[in-house]
Amino acid sequence: MTDTTFEPVRKVVTAIPGPKSQELMARYEKAVPKGITPGYASVAEFAEGAIIRDVDGNQLIDLGSGIGVTTLGHRHPKVVEAVKAQADQFLHMAAGITPYELYITVAEKLAANAPGDFAKKAFFMNSGAEAVENAVKIARAYTGKANVAVLDHSFHGRTNLTMAMNHKSVYATKMGPLAGSVHHAPNSYPYRDGLSGEEAAARTIEFLEKRIGAVDLAAVIAEPIQGEGGFIVAADGYYNKLIEWCHANDVLFVADEVQSGIARSGKFFASEYYGIEPDLITFAKGIADGMVLSGVLGRAEVMDAPLPGRLGGTYGGNPTALAAANAVIDAIHEENLCEEALRIEKGLRAFFEEQKTKTDVIGDIRGHGAMFAIEFVEAGTAETTKKPNTAAVKTIVDHAFANGVILLTCGSYGNVIRFLPSVTLTDEQLQDALSVIAEGIAKL
Ligand SMILES: Cc1ncc(COP(=O)(O)O)c(C=O)c1O
User: Which domains does the chain have, with CATH numbers?
Assistant: First the structure.
């Protein structure tokens, strides 16, 4: 029986990873392919809120939330209750065969929470990549055009189509041929390109016009805050100009909010930071607090373009996952969780602004809400060449892990530490984790 008595604090009781974790990892290596080797070798046994207890009894502060998934914390009571209640009702009901009310309710709630004063529809799949694939299908069906454009530093998934949509080649190495009709356009990366939103948009649009031509372009797919690419927040006005151009040219704008959506950024959808109204939005990760769910949401007339039978899949919109999503959406409002995300941003920003006065390896501090990141550069290059400092990131992340704090990295140059904690992370837990990170920074 798993011991579920739990004090929600960091505890280090063995070297991390401890002996039981090491034993299990030896089995893992024999049983699981190298392609999904974990970043951390501490094996989880129990989790609650922002704390994971491993099999050796260490309690780690989880600042990654299973890559931005458990936004409400591990096993949020309302989510657990909803899932259990649904399990007593039915576990599977292919909505394309036998519909059920929960499917409709969650679609309605998502539409009500998305930007844009127009009729919207939503449907459900299982993974972020599947959601992106479906958004592309819908955009092609609606416009009758084949080409799509993505932005530099983007990440959209690991399926065949989405492999072609990623900026970094490593996700597709030796796994081609990649899908065609996907074009990579320059993005807005204020820290590195120094361009205003208007200038960066002009550069993107020039590329789209020259390289593809609006007449052949179905959609631009972009992450409002670029996730894997380094939590890049576009310059003010960038997305507004880009959407303006899209709509003037019968091109759809798809916001991939798989990582940035569902209260993570301090808004229900991060698109709201720019005041944009995407035609389609993909969502996943935080929507069901760990249950398996993703989907596409968007303008009703666009969503209706694929004919009956052209969308869906056996498992898309599992009832227990939708029960979790229903509870997540309600909890976001009932518990003011967007405000909680902003509380976390405040704590992180204050800490790193102070650290920046003590070290010259912090190049950029950016993000929104509980989607926050630090870009590390070589000493003295923060304002000049901005040389990526991957060694600093490794030192800090290794120190954090050894001391019971799970930190994730990202960035096209591998030099960004990203914070994706649960928005229910307490101030005490955050400050404790930051004290460990301060020790890591002091080691540099
Ligand atoms: C913006 C974005 N899109 C798509 C995906 C792919 O999601 P999944 O891993 O669930 O397929 C991710 C995953 O990190 C993501 O961050």
Answer: 19-76+337-442 (3.90.1150.10), 79-334 (3.40.640.10)
